[in-house]
Design a protein that fits this description.
Belongs to the TonB-dependent receptor family. This protein is α+β, with helices and mostly antiparallel strands. Helices cover 21% and strands 21% of the residues. The longest helix has 18 residues, at 2-19. The protein is elongated, with a radius of gyration of 31 Å.
Length: 159
Amino acid sequence: MAKKIWTIVVGCLCLQLLYGAEVKDSILQLNLDEVVVQGRRSIYVMRIDKRVFNVGTDLMSTSGSVSDLMHNIPSVQVDVEGNVSLRGSESVNILIDGKPSALMNTRTRADALRQIPASEIERIEIITNPSAQYKPDGVSGIINLVILICSLARFFSGQ
């Protein structure tokens, strides 16, 4: 009985050695000189507290103004006169790099949005439920225009 068990164990070990032997690859290997990987950001990014519209991926960013860009953003409406509304309400704050600007008061907002070129904007952030950080008294939301870092010196200058 012990002899049969030893025969079976030795036979299994021999079979394992046979099946475990390496087989030479028949696939031809080719070395590449250089590989270029290109990626793009998605147009819309949903975050917990805001929606981000990446301007660089939109065709309107090469020509046109910020007002033209806002036509393509969901829940943002720009009428013929240039008035901006967010989800149907015109009580929206527009910030530049997260800070209030005198350009964006309700009287001159439409003209300012037509004058800022779309190529100077990196992204537009839509905050529909603003926190206390932005003092959201009676405001339906906030639109934050993030300016390209390289264009800050030549576009917005002052003392």
